Amino acid sequence: MSTSTADHGSWRRSLAPRAAGVVYAFIALVAILTITSAAQGRPSYLSSVNLSNILDQSALIAILAIFMTVVLISGNFDLSVASTAALAGTVALKTIDSYGPVVALLAALVTGALVGLINAVLVQKLGVNAFIVTLGTLTAVRGVVQAILDGQSITATDTTLLDIATARWTLPIAAAIVIGVLLVAGAVLLIRRGSSIMSTAGLWFAGLALILLAVFRPLMLTQTAPVWIMLVLAVLAALVLRFTVVGRNLYAVGGNPEAARLSGIDVDRYKMVAFVLNGTVAAMVGVLYAGRFNSVDPTVLTGGELTVIAAAVLGGTSLFGGSGYVAKSVVGTLILFTLSNGFNVLNIGSNYQNVVQGTVLVAAASLYTATSKRERSRFRLALRRNKGSGGEPPAASTTENKELVRH
Questions:
Q1: Number of other CB atoms surrounding residue 122 within 10 Å
Q2: CA–CA distance, 189 with 200 (Å, rounded to integer)
Q3: Minimal CA–CA distance to 49: which of 184, 223, 232?
Q4: Measured between alpha carbons, how far is 278 from 284 in angstroms, rounded to an integer?
């Protein structure tokens, strides 16, 4: 098979609904809301102010979705992230006035890591189902939050966390262009070394987005601290998952734990680290959330875990492990918050928001399932035909098989 034919096949697979459907859905949603807003004589939906609002509203949930994707890739499940974030935020605000912001932050992060470790031990060492364990910790941790707060909201006198969570950082235009060019160049280099186009999609998207924003929307380079934190974590997580031994091992652990174990991979360690990392990041999100309002109450982030899981699933992450892309989970989060923002901008009743969001989620899951089954059927048919002809599987099919193993 020629290089040009292989490249064409790689592009075709990367642009297929199974691979890029969530991106198409996001573009279509933004286009519909933009046209509808213009038709109703409302301010431009794509204004820098509105886009910045969407990013700010979705940043914390997107951070949780990034590391929920890591847990799901490992083959586990974590329903306790929102409760963990609430507990960490409560601990931070309870201790900051007495011990200062550094101690408060460390106490919150240790709290999150401890919850993650409890989940990890119960699931991996005792063998309890992850859904049951994290559902239990969700309830127990939420109960701890309610006991600490005694049904009351609390507010801190020290405003350090408020200053951090609401700070606006500006990326210089020249720096944005340089970083964007470096990201695109890195993607090109990785493709030349054999990486698939889909695996470098996050680098392409981030690099081109920075360049375009620097040229056409420089105001978008000023965002709140949580947005920049989310972007940095997304890029780092994507690079680790796709281009390091740790990332490849994590996919192997989630896709086929027994085969990974026979290959010498410490399956328990990878799965447990994913839980602990998820709990620690949830704690950081809780601190940022508490800092944004400089207060917490017993209901803070209630139900947030469902939004996080919905964002990851909307991005095509498998609930059965071994498959998922961080960049697509971030896009899934943006879809959910763009829907919510669109309802508010168009002044549509909130009664319909959950209906539409639920319908979008079911439709996305159905599309992923249908296309995945169809791709598997095509691959099996190609194998049977090739076996009948007595030849070896073609290179394109072998590549497709590797991609399907992750799904």
A1: 19
A2: 10
A3: 223
A4: 10
Name which of 329, 28, 330, 8 is nearest 197 in CA terms: 8
Name the nearest CA neighbour of 184 among 242, 218, 235: 235
Most confident of 137-146, 322-331, 357-366: 137-146
Token pair 């492990």: residue = 321
Can you name the residues that pair with 222 across neighbouring β-strands?
A: 170
Tell me what pLDDT residue 288 has.
96
Q: What does the pLDDT look like over 265-274, one tens digit per residue?
A: 999 999 999 9
CB 132 within 8 A of CB 290: no
Q: Render pLDDT for 111-145 as a digit per residue (tens, 0 to 9).
A: 999 999 999 999 999 999 999 999 999 999 999 99
26 — phi, psi (to 5°)? -65, -45
Helix (H, G, I), strand (E, B) or coil at 351: helix
Predicted confidence at residue 385, as pLDDT, reads 63
Six-digit token string for 366: 């159905």
The amino acid at 363: A
Q: Single out the residue of 299, 302, 329, 251 nearest to residue 75, CA to CA.
A: 251
Question: CA separation (Å) from 126 to 267, 268, 399?
Answer: 14, 11, 37
CA distance 254 to 356: 31
Q: Which residue has the tokens 């469902």?
A: 306
- Which of 351, 364, 345 is CA-nearest to residue 54? 345
pLDDT tops 50 at residue 395? no
Which amino acid, one-letter code, is at 367?
Answer: L
CA dihedral over 214, 220, 222, 224, signed as positive or negative = negative
Dihedral class, residue 171 (left if φ above 0, else alpha if ψ from -120 to 50, else beta): beta
Q: Which of 219, 214, 218 is nearest to 180 (CA)?
A: 214
How far lies 377's CA from each of 16, 22, 372, 401, in Å? 16, 22, 9, 11
Q: Are 68 and 78 in contact (CB under 8 A)?
A: yes
Q: Phi/psi zone of residue 325: left (φ > 0), alpha (ψ -120 to 50 degrees), beta? A: beta
Assess whether pLDDT exceeds 90 at residue 376: no
DSSP state of 220: G
Q: Classify burial at 349, counting beta carbons within 10 Å of its beta carbon; exposed 0-12, middle 13-18, buried 19 or more.
A: exposed
DSSP string, 8-21: HHHHHHHTSHHHHH
Q: If 0-12 CB within 10 Å is exposed, 13-18 middle and 19+ buried, where does residue 193 land?
A: exposed
The Cβ of residue 139 has, within 10 Å, a number of other Cβ atoms equal to 12
Percentage of the chain beyond pLDDT 70 is 82
Of 86, 39, 24, the C-alpha closest to 305 is 86
